[in-house]
Amino acid sequence: MKLIDAGALVAIGALAVGAQETMPSADVVLAALKAGNARHVAKKYERPNQTAARQRELAGGQHPHCAILTCADSRVPPEIVFDQGLGDMFDVRVAGNVAGNDEFASLEYAAEHVHVPLIVVMGHQKCGAIEAAVNGGEAPGHLPVLIAAIRPAVERTKTQSGDKFDNATRANVENVVEQLRDDKPVLSELVAHGKLKIVGAIYSVDSGKVEWLPAK
To answer: Is 150 helix (H, G, I), strand (E, B) or coil?
Structure first.
């Protein structure tokens, strides 16, 4: 019951939008996301913070309780996966959930100026960008730049047993989590001072369940 209670605390917007808001801890936010994902898996949504009143509140400023770097894939909408609402999550979405300068800057803004206590890097099963990086070959336009960012995960896992796409997906998330934790001077300092937690996760498009990767 504690998990569900923690989820309800954040999901129903008990923390007011405004200058005097006290941001919940990373652990409380993580519990809320886990509870929300459980509702998504069960298809028992609460659909919090989706009212006209909530929209009006947010016109005065945003205070999301977490940031998420995830894939642009249409099957992985964070607010639905975690049963959250308007203003609850600071979304950064890019194919392959990789982190370039724009993604770093966006997450630095979320952590330094919006003061989110938690960043989630979430990959997903059956990711087209991962499959392209694993399969190799020619890619048109700007795709080679994206694929190059994923290649280290492919190289790292090519001798591992098991599904090569799942292995690369996991390794890619782990690599990006480490990149963010090492980001100087902003994110690394916040992590070092206990003001920010960065975690990795994998979403299953088959089951709807989020697997949380072990913290290092």
So the answer is: helix
